[in-house]
Fold this sequence. Notes:
Layout: H1 2-15, H2 17-29, H3 38-50, E1 54-59, E2 63-69, E3 77-83, H4 110-126, E4 134-140, H5 149-155, E5 167-177, E6 181-183, E7 186-189, E8 193-200, E9 204-205, H6 215-233, E10 240-248, E11 255-256, E12 259-268, H7 271-291, E13 295-299, E14 307-309, H8 311-325, E15 330-332, H9 343-346, E16 351-359, H10 380-395
Parallel strand pairs: 3-4, 3-5, 5-16, 6-15
Antiparallel strand pairs: 1-2, 2-4, 6-16, 7-14, 8-12, 8-13, 9-11, 10-12
Amino acid sequence: xxxxxxxxxxxxxxxxxxxxxxxxxxxxxxxxxxxxxxxxxxxxxxxxxxxxxxxxxxxxxxxxxxxxxxxxxxxxxxxxxxxxxxxxxxxxxxxxxxxxxxxxxxxxxxxxxxxxxxxxxxxxxxxxxxxxxxxxxxxxxxxxxxxxxxxxxxxxxxxxxxxxxxxxxxxxxxxxxxxxxxxxxxxxxxxxxxxxxxxxxxxxxxxxxxxxxxxxxxxxxxxxxxxxxxxxxxxxxxxxxxxxxxxxxxxxxxxxxxxxxxxxxxxxxxxxxxxxxxxxxxxxxxxxxxxxxxxxxxxxxxxxxxxxxxxxxxxxxxxxxxxxxxxxxxxxxxxxxxxxxxxxxxxxxxxxxxxxxxxxxxxxxxxxxxxxxxxxxxxxxxxxxxxxxxxxxxxxx
Length: 397
């Protein structure tokens, strides 16, 4: 039966490709920013309803949850998740389905993720007599924006009634060709916290610095010192990154300003060290500023946690992928210091966050995500919808 089911899913992935491709073009052309995915959500709900799939809307604002019941639906439940939001980027691609919303673009592939989950939903509806249990589909808003749509959906009960015993999600990956997949058991992606520092001094004439408390000079000490705090206080075996992406202060060559603002991000692969680092960043900044007569104010909103793929589930999923796409097309992934709010789900239930290749023969569609030229070889849609459906039925065996 498993071999027959694999053949059916592969066949349906081919059969539904044109429809899922059209879905992807519609979503890509009509992107919406985080927590504003109103039209996208309405479109997704309309498709699910047309296909006879029960769904609940307006979770976490624009999120959707749908259920596909197999035989004996109360026996077990697993979840599949896709994110729906786009980024504030002007699209540079010259394609018929180019974004019609200037300054908003699906540059991270969430249009692909949503389309693949819709395709998987249609396949799973077709084969629902061939598995026992229930598949919960989660169409999530706001992955790109703090506090992350996943955290809100969880608070609103997305992991209850029924409670999934495992959850899967995929993500586009230009580093691999379409048709290929990538997995990594255990630690995979970093936590991500925003760092906001304000240094308040006393401004004045640039020629008379002794009459001022110069926040620009102090900011240089703070930035360079914090890099040493991270490298000297943190265990060198724990990956950590502290990057400052913006510094703002002053407006003229001969004026020392009253204030400097510094914005950055701190990322690591260890939750205990994460919060220790927060303390060190605050204490060092405040004490350094105080030593020079200034005031240091530090805010570190807690962002996404470390994403750790469940080792057993991910190892099994990797084996399922080898059955589905062939061993040569399944790859081991490196750890990444980027972050994903899928990590919130993995704090509650075992999760597997895997990648699907989206480039063409390593020659086309190589632009990275979050880039104005990002696009995919749409053959990847077949792999995406097929793998989501395949993981669901295998996890329910």
